[in-house]
Design goal:
alpha/beta; Metallo-beta-lactamase, Chain A; 27% strand; globular; binds zinc ion
Length: 291
């Protein structure tokens, strides 16, 4: 399936990523409704990674415009108090908001989205939290397909037809799941395995160099471009999208750094960027930086 993705992401200000075919919104920063206009009505599920203000402030307007029986369904890390506080305020503020579903989730929660797709939440370490406490999540999108079990693959059509009758087709199939997209949310680079095998990886790269930006919440951990590209060179990913750059970087700086690091780490896969301050429409059809 080709995914049409509309996205905006600038560290500290706002991040949101909309997957049109599936009606999924990943994070809901300020400006998501005005950025998507009528398309925002297609949003069914909203997965918020963590309670930093640049990832959830768009929910006020989005819910006010779109709340209807059973939708939208919002999913958030279960140990963040900001979400129930926001829910209570919004419900008081505008009675229409009573329709919004607020669902606390945690590491390894799986949420079916459309037929044959589900989202799996995985813990990340952006916000310090003890084991078993969940304040920051990444999201993996899986597609499931029913395929013939290995032992039947070599058989000819006629034998198969007979076996279907004899055993029942459903008993000869197995479910195969493919990780078609992964969204890191805000996160430091740590366990490479979390992203391995994802066809499309959307990963944050807040900083181009090794200095820290004091304006961006110091206690919360972020990624540097060099570490992200080093990691990507060592795992299996088919396409990379970088987001959440600090607003102090210009497009040219970002591109130049990516090209240098592609050389350094011998990266061949296409890399696309969600540049600070820009709304990207049909992100995956955008020209890769390293094409
Ligand atoms: Zn952020």
């Amino acid at each position: 399936m080709n995914l049409t993705i509309t996205a905006y992401s600038t560290a500290l200000f706002s991040t949101w990523i909309f997957i049109e075919e599936l009606g999924i919104l990943l994070d809901a920063g300020d400006g998501v409704s005005s950025g998507l206009l009528q398309k925002s009505r297609k949003i069914k599920e909203i997965f918020v990674t963590h309670p930093d203000r640049d990832h959830l402030m768009g929910l006020f307007q989005l819910n006010a415009l779109n709340a209807r029986e059973g939708f939208p369904k919002i999913y958030y890390p279960k140990d963040c108090g900001s979400f129930p506080a926001m829910r209570d305020f919004q419900t008081k503020f505008d009675v229409q908001n009573k329709f919004v579903e607020w669902n606390p989730i945690q590491h390894l929660s799986e949420i079916p989205v459309r037929k044959d797709f589900f989202i799996q939440a995985i813990r990340n370490e952006h916000i310090n939290a003890p084991e078993g406490v969940f304040k920051s999540l990444s999201y993996k999108l899986f597609e499931t397909k029913q395929k013939l079990k290995l032992e039947y693959l070599e058989l000819d059509k006629k034998t198969l037809q007979n076996l279907f009758k004899e055993k029942g087709k459903e008993n000869m199939l197995e479910t195969v799941k493919t990780n078609i997209l992964t969204y890191s949310g805000d996160t430091p680079v740590d366990d490479y395995e979390k992203w391995n095998g994802s066809k499309i990886l959307i990963h944050e790269a807040t900083f181009l160099e090794n200095s820290d930006d004091s304006k961006i919440n110091k206690s919360n951990k972020h990624s540097k471009l060099d570490e992200v590209l080093k990691m990507v060179s060592e795992i299996e990913v088919e396409q990379l999208v970088l987001n959440h750059f600090s607003s102090r970087y210009y497009k040219e700086d970002i591109d130049k750094n990516i090209l240098e690091l592609c050389k350094k780490y011998k990266i061949q896969i296409p890399i696309r960027v969600i540049y600070p301050g820009e709304i990207h429409r049909d992100l995956l059809n955008q020209e890769p930086v390293n094409s």
